[in-house]
Input
Amino acid sequence: MLTHAPPQPTATSPVSNSELSLEARLAATDAAMTIRLEEAAVAHEVRTAHLPTETLYLEDVVTLPLTPTLTPPPAPYPTPVAALLQRAHHRLLTGGWCTGARVDAEGARCLYGAIHIEARGDQSLESRGLQVLMDAIRREFTDVDSVPSFNDGFASGRIPMRMLDQAAGLADARGL
Output
C-alpha cells in the first residue's frame, strides 16, 4: 500500500510578485542576497579558522617605479642610527637594490652597501645600524645569520627594503 507524504506547507505572500513594484522586488532580492552572503561569510570563517595566516604588506603587493624626483627624502629621524637607516633606505629606493655585491655595475647597492656608504666612515654608527637591522630582521625571520645573507636570499628588494625601513623605526623607538 502506498502512502503519500503530507503536503509541504508553502509560503504564500499576501501580495503576488507581479503586484510589487520593481523597486520593491529589487529591495527584497537585495535583502535575501545580503542574508545569504552573511551566512556564507560566517561559514567561510568557521571553515578556515584553523588555517595559519601570514601578514601581507601593501608595499610588497603594490609597486611603482621610483625615481629621485618622485621620492623626496623623508623628514630625517632625530636619532643618529635611525637617521642612518632612513638614509640607507632612501638610497636603495632611489639608487636601486642589488644582490651578490655591495655595489653593482649600475650603482645599485645591497643593504650592507647602503648602510656602509651612508655611515660616511663612522664604523661605530655603521655597526649599530647593522645591529638594529639584524634585530628587526630576526623579529620576522628567525633563521638569518647576517645582513648580507638575508639580502642575498631575495630576488627582489621589496622585503629587504621593508626590513630596513622597519629597522629605522625600531632605532627611533629605542632612541638610537
About this structure: The radius of gyration is 29 Å. The CA atoms of residues 3 and 9 lie 18 Å apart. Helices lie at 22-48, 58-61, 80-95, 111-119, 123-140, 147-152, 158-174.
